[in-house]
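thought: user wants a sequence for this fold. calling inverse folding tool.
action: design(structure=
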């Protein structure tokens, strides 16, 4: 697990393409909005608003680079424990983001998808999600995967229950397999992340994509999410391209 050494590094998109294989799927834990706001004497909602603004150029840059899937951790199953005012502000920001950005994302060829138990979200958020999914359903350039009311353990429980529902009555000799679980995850049909980026310097995955991150390369930066920009993204991809990915095996 690399951490950001805070050394200046100039990497542009063309040089990344020349250096080698780009990750097909990038997952991001967008952490640090609250601390960013606190450092500036702002309320947490303003930090989340700044975080939404930071996401927009990252989505565009990933699409421009040719990344197939970008999954961002927007709201976890544990985030419900935050103050209700903050939670409500997060849903308002989600609705605002989807309504304002979906036309441009569609024009950029981005398809919006979600993972997590979105059925438990407020109706206004569900309506905005459904509209964004519908409007971008035919886009094929990149998938923007929003993790909403998402928890890795919750996803695994739901995946096994989906499998069981298909098997009823379950024969005694029938056992769940790794492939069966993968086919019933929220991310079924998408490649596993090659690269996980976490902002704010925390060294944990916070119940995010527990199954899918099995062989992901991890990059941690101390940059708070609202300050994360395309150059920071380039640094992470540059670090990924320097890794020797063996998937448990050995190079000859």
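)
observation: tool returned 252 residues.
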């Amino acid at each position: 697990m690399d951490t950001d050494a805070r050394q200046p590094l100039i990497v542009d998109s063309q040089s990344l393409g020349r250096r080698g294989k780009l990750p097909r799927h990038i997952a991001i834990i967008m952490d640090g909005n609250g601390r960013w706001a606190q450092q500036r004497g702002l309320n947490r909602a303003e930090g989340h608003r700044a975080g939404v603004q930071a996401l927009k150029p990252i989505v565009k840059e990933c699409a421009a680079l040719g990344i197939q899937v970008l999954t961002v951790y927007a709201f976890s199953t544990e985030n419900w424990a935050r103050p209700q005012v903050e939670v409500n502000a997060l849903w308002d920001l989600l609705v605002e983001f989807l309504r304002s950005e979906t036309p441009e994302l569609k024009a950029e060829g981005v398809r919006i998808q979600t993972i997590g138990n979105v059925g438990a979200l407020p109706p206004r958020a569900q309506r905005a999600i459904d509209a964004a999914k519908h409007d971008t359903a035919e886009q094929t350039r990149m998938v923007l995967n929003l993790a909403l009311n998402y928890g890795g353990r919750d996803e695994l429980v739901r995946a096994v229950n989906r499998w069981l529902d298909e098997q009823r009555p379950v024969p005694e000799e029938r056992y769940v397999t790794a492939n069966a679980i993968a086919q019933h995850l929220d991310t079924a049909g998408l490649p596993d992340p090659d690269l996980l980026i976490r902002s704010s310097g925390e060294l944990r995955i916070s119940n995010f994509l527990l199954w899918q991150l099995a062989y992901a390369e991890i990059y941690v930066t101390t940059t708070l999410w609202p300050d994360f920009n395309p150059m920071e993204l380039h640094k992470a991809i540059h670090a990924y391209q320097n890794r020797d990915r063996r998937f448990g095996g050995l190079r000859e």
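thought: summarizing for user.
answer: Here is the designed sequence. The chain has one domain: 2-241.
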